[in-house]
Amino acid sequence: MTNNLDTLATALYARIDDELKASSWLAPWRPAIGISPTLSDAELITLAVMSALLGYTSERRWLRRGGRDFGHLFPYVPQQSGYNKRLRAAFSLLTSMIRIVARDTSLWSDDVWLVDSTPVGCGCSRETVKHSDLAGWAQYGYCASHSRYFWGLRLHLVCTLGGLLVLFALTGAKADERETLRDMLDTVPDVLAAYPGQTIIGDKNYFGREFERGLAERHLKLLRPARKGEAEPTGSHLFKSLRQVIESINQTFKGQLNLERHGGKSPAGVSARVLCRILALTAAIWHNDQTGQPIKRSLTAYGH
């Protein structure tokens, strides 16, 4: 199978369309009586994924490009206002498709998970902070890996060594990483039951006897670098290389998928744009896996 953007878009569209036909409840709600949308939900999500893979941060520019160069895939491309409104309404569909597509890969059954969080900036000026609709959710926070303060959110990730996202959450910048991890794990009892004994590798912030006891009760093993005054754990020499893996995944989101240039101005807008980028990476891994590519997380064939 050819490994390019058109092939990925076609395969992803077919996967989403089949899922919507089998589980119609996944589709965004719309009135039973009214005008049917010209652009289907499967086409909408595919269009958004292509935008992320090609690095577009402006919806208007992308829709002009989509109508001009991808008419063979999308006979109808909506205006920006309609596109944006429908994408925000597709929050549940985006979330569901991330999990469904991820389960279709060979990486899903990996027995080692990496956990980390990365900043998602939402504004750089005092006036933005004062007047933004994100106030109350977005917060001031500190990014230790880049030694900088920011105003926005944090994207918490649990992923495999190959970069496939298993769990994710978008929280305020000051949210406790340990509590967020516990909450994420509590939302997927089926995954924990299907894959008991997972090893979770995190940084020094994932510490505490009660926290580690809670993970052990969920049949999970935590590995992290030693904090001051603690004995070095077995295999500690591997933490540096594993840390580079999670940093590389974060860089894929930021450097190639423009995570911090999402352009969202409301909670629904930010959530939809972040989910599109997560689905874009998941879809790329899924397609690379289906086509037998050696590097599953590579986006080169899709415009990078």
Could you describe the 3D structure shown?
This protein has 304 residues and is α/β, with parallel strands linked by helices. It has a domain at 110-259: Ribonuclease H-like superfamily/Ribonuclease H (Nucleotidyltransferase, domain 5, 2-Layer Sandwich). The protein is built from eleven helices and six strands. Strands 1, 2, 3, 4, 5 and 6 form a six-stranded mixed β-sheet that branches. Helix 4 (80-89) crosses helix 11 (267-290). The longest helix has 24 residues, at 267-290. The radius of gyration is 20 Å and the shape is globular. The model has no long low-confidence stretch (mean pLDDT 89).
- Looking at CATH, the homologous superfamily of the domain at 110-259 is Ribonuclease H-like superfamily/Ribonuclease H
CATH topological fold name of the domain at 110-259: Nucleotidyltransferase, domain 5
Secondary-structure element series: HHHHHEHEEEHHEHEHH
Structural class label: alpha/beta
The amount of helix comes to: 40-55%
Quick one: biggest sheet?
6 strands, mixed
Distance between the termini: 19 Å
Q: Provide the β-strand percentage band.
A: 5-15%
Mean pLDDT: 89
Total strand segments: 6
The CATH C-level name of the domain at 110-259 is Alpha Beta
- CATH architectural arrangement of the domain at 110-259: 2-Layer Sandwich
Low-confidence stretches: none
* Number of H- or I-type helical stretches: 11
